[in-house]
Predict the structure of Solute carrier family 41 member.
Amino acid sequence: ILQHWDVFKNVTNLFILVPALLGLKGNLEMTLASRLSTAANIGQMDTPKEFWKMITGNMALLLVQATVVGFLASIAAVVFGWIPDGHFSLSHAVLLCASSVATAFVASLFLGMIMIGVIIGSRRMGINPDNVATPIAASLGDLVTLALLSGISCGLYKDLESKFYVNPLVCALFLALLPIWVFVARKDSATWEVLCSSWEPVVIAMAISSVGGLILDRTVSDPNFAGMAVFTPVINGVGGNLVAVQASRISTYLHMSGMPGESSKTVPWKCPSPCSTFCSSDVNSRSARVLFLLVVPGHLVFLYTISSMQGGHTTLTLIFVVFYMTAALLQVLILLYIADWMVHWMWNRDLDPDNFSIPYLTALGDLIGTGLLAVSFHILWLIGDRDSDVGD
């Protein structure tokens, strides 16, 4: 629906922002959920003093990261959109900046509060937060962020001509609040350490997602690939959701055996074989098999929902479903294997996987998912009837 709104048609660089901002749920909210789930599981949130110290510090950290990454994502969208087209519009650039920063801040504030509530409720009900918090962050993150981005950008676009000062004022307001959140985060040594050391994965993940956004922008702008708009958030959301659960579970499993950097026989140094990742009797291998088996039934539900709501511009024929499922299965297979290697690799190098692994994995999920989906649509267009209703 949004691809037909005036703001998306006239400021097409917004499509580059979509995977980058939806990827914030992997960069920030799911990392927060993983970090707090581990803290809850190992007893670091049992007393009221520890609880409130961890909550306030992590929320302030989240808002700092959201503001900075939202600003950087808008710059990336402007650059990636300007280089292929050779056209630069200052008013559109400021609109992208204001929309991105405002969306990232409000979405992170809302989702962060929900994550805290989910983790508290899970602990009280005797449920492992690793199995609940990250999927909720992933699914709600996509919905909330896309709704906020569309609403905020549409509102700011209407004021672009008559009230030219609104967009720069929005940017300045959220950037001016940064010192306050930095001051609050600095009071907790754990969050201050994360704030000082976690920029590399967050920024690199944002850049990777922006490349996926560039692919989306190039394809959605082509009438022959118009149907990709409805399937991209689905395939990326499912892939990021499943791999984040696996990364969070492996990280908690390792934290229960020691601290990052402590080598043991349960922490392999070498790149794992696919058999050990998916076919062994290890608890993490079993969870990888379960998550992989969820791909087909999960996507079938989404495809049926999209079809019944008459969403998108693609006829769901058997050959389309086969190509789509192949892309989805391949994406999750690659992500689960990378997660098994990456979490252990980071652990052995004294890096906390809760803070470093999920941004990379969800960003790779966006890039791989969008790329495989674009390839699938291109193949279907080559063998199909070559109109916008790919698969018909």
In short: The chain is about 80% helix and 0% strand. The CA atoms of residues 22 and 143 lie 9 Å apart. The chain has a mean pLDDT of 80.
